[in-house]
Design goal:
The protein is mostly helical. 52% of the residues lie in helices and 4% in strands. The chain has helices at residues 2-20, 25-31, 33-39, 62-74, 80-87, 91-104, 120-129, 132-135, 155-165, 178-184, 189-199; strands at residues 45-46, 52-53, 77-78, 174-175. The strands form two sheets. The chain has a two-stranded antiparallel ribbon. A two-stranded antiparallel sheet has the order 3-4. The N and C termini lie far apart (62 Å). 30% of the residues are buried.
Length: 215
Amino acid sequence: MKKLISLLIALAATGFALQAQAQDAKAGEKKAAMCIGCHGIPGYQASFPEIYKVPMIAGQGSKYIVSALTAYRKGDRKHPTMRAIAASLSDQDMADLAAFYETEAKGEGSVAQTAPAPSAEVAELLKKGNCASCHGENFNKPIDPTYPKLAGQHADYLYVALKAYQTDRNPQVGRNNAIMMGMAKPFTHAELKLVTAYLATLPSELKTVPQSRFR
């Protein structure tokens, strides 16, 4: 009987933990106040480590958003502001925010179906990086939900992000991801600009949705 009771308690505790981690988009909307000052203003630019448009996260996959926030919290993504924000979030906060942003862009307009063909040079660079093998068809359908959609993302943000994967031993700038570090390092900055400029032209599910206080 004692074993049965212990088993029931363990199962109940497991169920409670799973319930606690359930994503709640409505709760995420309420928690997004710290995010909308940057990610809720179309065209808003960051100034560290250089000037670039902050990424569009509405329409991004929820598991990727959680993965990115976790990387900031752990210090695998070195960005002082984002690390401080991520450090203030619980796992539940991250799950709720991710659920909100994954669904926020729905109803904001359809995604065009025709993707422009890359130039021969860009096609060769994309092949060199083997980018589609992870980021999927038209760079909008990642093969793993923890990978980001790239199509339509701001070119200058993508450029800064890729350069971060090339940066070593800098306490303030850089991204620690073995796969992406290996992919990014062979490219020159000029080549990265060509690739990111093309990715930004692709049909996208990503958007910046203005919040009511910014409309």
